[in-house]
Amino acid sequence: MAATNTDYQVQEIVVASLGHNGTRPVLLLRINDEILIYQAYRYPRGHLKMRFRKANQVIVIKQFNTPNKTPADADSTTKTTDKRISLLRYFSNISGYNGVFVCGPYPHWIFLTSRGELRIHPMWIDGGVQCFAPFHNVNCPQGFLYFNKKDELRICVLPTHLSYDAHWPVRKVPLRCTLHFVTYHVESKTYCIITSLAEPSNKYYK
């Protein structure tokens, strides 16, 4: 008789069409405290002519702790309730992007660039996210809303001046000068740069 491993059970499966015009199917699996991602590729054999390849990126998540409950009650609640809660939320148009949002104590955005590169960006500015949904109206075009761990509703938009196609969200700023040095300032969590600019002068220093 074959032994079954109950420690690793698939709790949620999502197949989402990402990329340009949704032409790149992506399979996401939630197993315990991890999100595994598989990308589809063409395969000449078989009926579907398609297989999935595991991506190198793995998202580690953990369940919310229920307050005012003993550890036994918390374990029971986790087994009966948390596993049934959908943490993977697909969206089709948030600031022009389509992808999957991962709810939980450590929320993430999952995008697929026009070049087919997988990008994962954490969103820890407001702590954990309990639920998430796209939202669109006149005052919040192509936006989204979510409830944080304090049960507060947030109505937001993704900043359109940022590009999410790189490993970090980036914004290109024209300096119009020559850059010489870049260093990171730990206290302010900013990057400091030293630049120079050529200007005409009729004086010289002795």
From TrEMBL:
<protein>
    <recommendedName>
        <fullName>RSE1/DDB1/CPSF1 second beta-propeller domain-containing protein</fullName>
    </recommendedName>
</protein>
<dbReference type="Pfam" id="PF23726">
    <property type="entry name" value="Beta-prop_RSE1_2nd"/>
</dbReference>
<feature type="domain" description="RSE1/DDB1/CPSF1 second beta-propeller">
    <location>
        <begin position="5"/>
        <end position="158"/>
    </location>
</feature>
<dbReference type="InterPro" id="IPR050358">
    <property type="entry name" value="RSE1/DDB1/CFT1"/>
</dbReference>
<dbReference type="InterPro" id="IPR058543">
    <property type="entry name" value="Beta-prop_RSE1/DDB1/CPSF1_2nd"/>
</dbReference>
